[in-house]
Design goal:
α3 crosses α4. The protein has one domain. The protein starts with 21 loop residues before the first strand and ends with a helix. It is built from eight helices and 15 strands. The strands form four sheets. Strands 4-3-2-1-10-13-9-8 form an eight-stranded mixed sheet, sandwiched between helices. Strands 5-7-6 form a three-stranded parallel sheet, with no helix packed on it. It has a two-stranded antiparallel sheet with strand order 11-12. By secondary structure, the protein is of the alpha/beta class.
Length: 356
């Protein structure tokens, strides 16, 4: 919940958003969360963009990986879903496609049939040493096994990029590096590629923004539960035309680890506030989504994850939950379902934007 010294932000407003035309994208932990959110609420989305992310529930690939369930999910996340020793130990897309169907049959996520007609942008950089390309290969295959035709998937796997979302900003990291803030200059705006693949031809990005970035109180959407590991505030870009009443669509843009607005490094379990990094606003200001949104009557929703490293939550890097750290029952985690605290919060934000 907001602390005593934090000014409370206004609530998220509503607009004339067609929620059945929503889409989502993310980098790294935001990409893993993109897959989960996409499947959980596939009836709401028309497509997704996945930058360096693995398939649905891949952290449960080997449930017997450790004696303690929590340790098993973490080990799977690290050594299957991120850095498999050899490609053969990457996630098994066939098995995980069946897991997705079982999840849908149990009512935990929307029907799988919604996925087939959607459009996917999937990306892995050839220099990515954080989430290996062999993992992202399985994400493409996973969606194909769920019925998405290959021509609906734009799979980019030849760019010599490190672990990052790519921009054309000269002040961003060199393209091949793997270091924070995980925003690298490759001479193009990856956000534009994502949005144009999902929605088809769009107007070129605005040279000057007409709208504004709004900050809103995010705590109402997860009821202030610290287990959510979500920040007090979140952000949205709203074009002026949308604020003045124009119909719009919503794109959810999910940052990766160490990219939230209030990210700080944890040292020995404590936040190093005296040496906090100054780049926490760059994902929602410099990655090109806003310029595309302004020209095409899109609202860009930027939910914010928050680092925590205590007895309740072990998430020091401010990652989205794709391996179960928010679950109250470690032996039976629900981080992937419509009832998961983070997925539920983001979906509630979408509903608000559509006036529901």
């Amino acid at each position: 919940m907001p602390n005593a010294t934090s000014p409370k932000a206004p609530p998220l407003p509503s607009f004339k958003a067609d929620l059945e035309q929503s889409s989502v994208s993310g980098l790294s932990s935001g990409a893993f969360m993109t897959v989960q959110l996409h499947l959980a609420h596939s009836s709401t989305f028309v497509g997704a963009g996945i930058i360096a992310g693995g398939p649905f529930r891949c952290a449960e690939s080997f449930r017997a990986a450790a004696a303690i369930a929590e340790d098993a999910w973490t080990m799977n996340a690290l050594y299957v879903c991120m850095n498999p020793l050899i490609p053969q130990t990457a996630p098994n897309p066939g098995r995980l496609a069946e897991v997705a169907r079982e999840s849908a049959a149990n009512g935990e996520i929307d029907p799988i049939e919604n996925i087939a007609g959607q459009r996917l942008y999937i990306f892995t950089g050839t220099e990515d040493s954080v989430v290996y390309s062999s993992v992202v290969d399985t994400t493409r295959r996973f969606y194909e096994l769920l019925g998405v035709a290959p021509e609906r998937i734009l799979y980019e796997n030849t760019v010599p990029a490190g672990h990052s979302i790519i921009t054309d900003n000269p002040e961003d990291n060199p393209l091949p590096v793997n270091r924070p803030p995980y925003i690298n200059n490759g001479g193009f705006m990856q956000s534009r590629h994502i949005l144009e693949h999902i929605y088809g031809p769009l107007k070129p990005p605005a040279e000057r923004l007409s709208g504004r970035i709004i900050r809103f109180d995010q705590t109402e959407f997860f009821d202030g539960n610290p287990r959510a590991s979500m920040s007090d505030f979140a952000y949205a870009y709203v074009p002026r035309a949308v604020e003045e009443g124009a119909p719009c669509r919503v794109h959810v843009a999910l940052h990766g680890c160490k990219q939230g607005y209030n990210y700080v490094n944890y040292v020995n379990g404590r936040p190093d506030l005296d040496n906090a990094v100054p780049y926490g606003n760059r994902y929602y200001t410099t990655t090109g989504y806003n310029e595309m949104a302004d020209a095409n009557d899109l609202v860009i929703l930027y939910p914010q994850a928050q680092g925590a490293d205590d007895s309740t939550t072990q998430n020091p890097d401010g990652c989205w939950d794709w391996w179960g750290y928010t679950s109250e029952t470690p032996g039976n985690p629900d981080y992937y379902s419509k009832k998961a605290i983070q997925i539920q919060a983001i979906y509630r934000m979408l509903q608000r934007l559509g006036g529901r």
